[in-house]
Amino acid sequence: MAQSATSKGKGKVIVAKAMKLKCPMCGFDGEMGPNSNYEVLGRYNGYPAYVCKNCGKGLRITNAGRAMITKRAKAALLPAGVVDDMNKRFEEMMKRKSP
Ligand SMILES: [Zn+2]
């Protein structure tokens, strides 16, 4: 029992190489992850959806499965209005969750 000294300290985290994405709208090329240029939006028609903070456009990842291997995601623009829609839905969901 006492031997399982797997410390949950920092530095012991297995760092998966971050996926990179080039925004098809503004051309921003960067990593995807926490505090990156790309903010998770949710899902759109089954695709992972992100917002590019640089240009504010909604993107869907078109090669999510393959990108896990290649570390290079491909994205297509979401139709106008989808980002607002999804944000609204997210806000409503949060409102419902919190009493
Ligand atoms: Zn962009």
Task: Explain this structure.
The chain is an alpha+beta fold. The chain has one domain (20-97). 23% of the residues lie in helices and 28% in strands. The chain has two helices and seven strands; from the N terminus they run βββββαββα. The chain has helices spanning 64-70, 82-97; strands at residues 20-22, 29-31, 38-44, 47-52, 58-61, 72-73, 75-77. It has a four-stranded antiparallel sheet with strand order 3-4-5-7, covered by helices on one side. Strands 2-1-6 form a three-stranded mixed sheet. The radius of gyration is 17 Å and the shape is globular. The model has no long low-confidence stretch (mean pLDDT 85). The structure holds zinc ion.
Summarize the topology.
Blueprint lengths: L19 E3 L6 E3 L6 E7 L2 E6 L5 E4 L2 H7 L1 E2 L1 E3 L4 H16 L2
Parallel strand pairs: 1-6
Antiparallel strand pairs: 1-2, 3-4, 4-5, 5-7
The structure holds zinc ion.
Short description:
The chain has 99 residues and is an alpha+beta fold. 23% of the residues lie in helices and 28% in strands.
